[in-house]
Amino acid sequence: MSRLVAFLVSLLLAVDVFAGQYDINAPGRVVAFGDVHGAYRDLSTLLQEVGVVDTELNWIGGNTHLVSLGDLLDRGPDSRKVVELLMKLQRQAAQAGGAVHLVLGNHEVMVMSGDLRYVSPEEFAAFAADETQAERDELYAQYRGFNPEGDEADARQRFDDQYPPGFIALRKAFSRGGTIGDWLLEQPFVIKVNDKVYMHGGIASEPTQESLESLNAKMQAELEDFLVSMDELRAAGVMPWYVDYHDRLAFLTARVQEFTAANPRRKAQWFDAVQKVFDAQQAFVFSDDSLNWYRGTALCHPYAESYNTERFLKRVGARQLVIGHTPTRGDVHERMGGLAIRLDTGMLTSVYKGRASALISEGGSHYVHYLGGTTREQPVPEQRSMAQRLSGMSDAELEQFMLSAPVVDVKEIDTGVTHPWRVTQQKDGVSVDSLFKYGDTNPGLQSKSNYVSVRSDDSDRYVYDVSAYKLDRLLDLQMVPTAVITTIKGREGAQSAWVDNAINERDRLELGTDFEGYCKQYEQYRLRVIYDILIHNDDRNLTNILWTKDDMMLHFIDHSLAFRSTEQRPKQYRKVALLVSDLLRAQLASLNEQNLTRELSPYLHPRQIEAILARRDLILKEAKGTAP
Question: Would the pTM of this model clear 0.90, i.e. be above it?
Answer without folding.
Answer: yes
